[in-house]
Amino acid sequence: KILYLMSLNFLLKLKTIFILFISASVYIVKSNENKNVIFLLADGTNDLEAISVIHVLRLAGLHVVVASLDKNDTVTCTSGVAIKVDTSILSVSQQIPFDAVVFVDGIKATNIFIKSEDVAVLLKEHEYRRRYIATSGSGPLVLLAHEIGFMKSITSSTLYRNQLEDHYKYTDSDIVVDGKLITNRYSGKAIEFALSIINHMQGEELAE
Fold it and tell me: Does the keyword Membrane apply (predicted)?
């Protein structure tokens, strides 16, 4: 009888775990409906930060499309690492309704984004439709160049503070969120940056 009760208790625990697992799975699926992220890459992007952020966002179930600015299927990052992209910005920016655009540090990539009319159009579209824009390090210089989010609170690499503080409420915090604009100070906070994006797009429970 004791063995029977122990077995019954064990089965009940298994059932509870299974129900919790199914509930969590359903929550993730429901919370991820139509949550698409376009992650911009260009030559000179910080590879460690890019890979970390993409990995964490995908672990959370977000549909992350990695896009270059041209038809090349790879970009060469800061350390010489080549990353294969999914597509180009020209192929998808008008086809998929993205909920967020993300790009990270790397001054060479930042200068490429600054000169890109396609990036300007994408960012202005996201700002107009009140969708998320997330960037880090030197990335806020792209926001400045394309006149995105003026007078919002942001952070960046301290190297660019003087260039930004006339047009933004600049802070020295590691990660700053102001409405749909998320900025990260430096690549060492890549995981926290990704979790902040998840927290605001998917909810605090999933980020934890």
Answer: yes
SS3 content of the chain, % helix, strand, coil (to 5): 50, 20, 30
pLDDT 10s digits, 70-114: 988 999 999 899 999 999 998 886 677 899 999 999 999 999 999
Mark whether 17 and 71 lie in a shared domain: no
Query: Which tens digit of pLDDT belongs to each residue from 157-200?
Result: 999 999 999 999 999 999 999 999 999 999 999 999 999 999 99
Regarding whether 48 and 134 lie in a shared domain, the answer is yes
Q: In this structure, are residues 85 and 134 in contact, taking their beta carbons and an 8 Å threshold?
A: no
Is residue 207 in some structural domain?
Answer: no
CA–CA separation, 116 vs 106, rounded Å? 15
Q: Is there a single domain that holds both residue 172 and residue 128?
A: yes
**Whole-number Å distance between alpha carbons of 208 and 5:** 36
Residue type at 147 in one-letter notation: E
Co-location of 10 and 71 in the same domain = no
CB atoms within 10 A of CB 22: 10
- Hey, what amino acid is at 112? I
135 and 175 assigned to the same domain? yes
Residue 208 located in a structural domain: no
